């Protein structure tokens, strides 16, 4: 597995001009227990450990590369729901175990066929796992890390294995049970991880009142969620309060804050790849990104849409 940064984050010391904001692509290329094998026609074909899986992927608007028979041989197919967040169901092409083990570095974790098309791990997060492990190793002291909405624990177990002290928060008892199962399977039971089953926002509000701080914070909030007492988590309305609290849990000596948001599922890469596929025989190049509106008399940007733009500078010239 290797992670590459396609375009560097821009320095933004002074005037935040539009040209100074370049998207950074954190690219995850798979590892021995995960591969994105193919995509197209609104589906993706992946391998998780020893099983291949087909799941809906609205952004895979192009054509698959591999022959249909390879897709037909998939061990499990998620069907029955076109809704992004719908429960849907799995169809199995042979008898499969309820769980199966996979590895990422020092961590062994179980896959499970869950509702909402999940299998217990978000492989693209490996880009963050590696980066956090680097931070832990480079810091030269035991980092105190907070992992919110921690799910099955990958972002807690990996830094803990590298020497960090981790506080893992999730509102689901089941998810915490699964994360602890992964901890045990990985032989990391002696590592300092505090498992906390609580509403994430309530927990950070309490940490602010206690005056606690962290060296690093990771959060991967869903679009909608529920706390242990039915508290409503809504990404767009809860995130401002969450960010205000997180600021108070960080000091000038803290090292990182990573926020992943799946609330916006479309990416400029989807239209870029589609245009690339259909225009591939033409000269010129394609650039893609987002359109944003700049606020009057302010450096703030509002993203409105994605774009892809093909240009052939040699075209339509008087020859
Ligand atoms: C890892 S996150 C999101 C995963 C994925 N990125 C997505 O968007 O579906 C899902 C986790 O957040 C937890 N969760 C949801 N609402 C929560 C809340 N209010 N407080 C704490 N954890 C919550 C869930 O139990 C689940 O384990």
Task: Throw out a few tags for this protein.
Immunoglobulin-like, methyltransferase, SAM-dependent_MTases_sf, 319 residues, Rossmann fold, SAM-dep_methyl-trfase, 3 domains, alpha/beta, five-stranded mixed sheet, disordered N terminus, binds S-adenosylmethionine, globular
Major sheet: order of its strands?
A: 3-4-5-6-7
CATH C-level of the largest domain = Alpha Beta
* Main beta sheet strand tally, sense and closure: 5 strands, mixed
So what's the overall shape? Answer: globular
Q: What would you give as the CATH superfamily of the largest domain?
A: Vaccinia Virus protein VP39
Average pLDDT works out at: 88
Region (Disordered): 1-20
Pfam families: Methyltrans_SAM
Domain S-adenosylmethionine-dependent methyltransferase: 98-233
GO molecular function: methyltransferase activity
What does this entry look like structurally?
The protein has 319 residues and is an alpha/beta fold. It has seven helices and 18 strands. The protein has three domains: 31-96, Sandwich (Immunoglobulin-like); 122-259, Rossmann fold (3-Layer(aba) Sandwich); 268-311, no CATH class. Strands 3-4-5-6-7 form a five-stranded mixed β-sheet, with no helix packed on it. It has a five-stranded parallel β-sheet with strand order 12-11-10-13-16, covered by helices on one side. A hairpin with a 5-residue loop joins strand 14 and strand 15 (232-234). Helix 2 runs parallel beside helix 3 (154-161) and helix 5 packs parallel to helix 6. The longest helix has 15 residues, at 235-249. Bound molecules: S-adenosylmethionine. Residues 122, 149, 151, 169-172, 175, 199-200, 220, 222, 225-227, 231, 233, 262 line the site of S-adenosylmethionine. Pfam families: Methyltrans_SAM. Keywords: Methyltransferase, S-adenosyl-L-methionine, Transferase. Residues 1-20 are annotated as: Disordered.
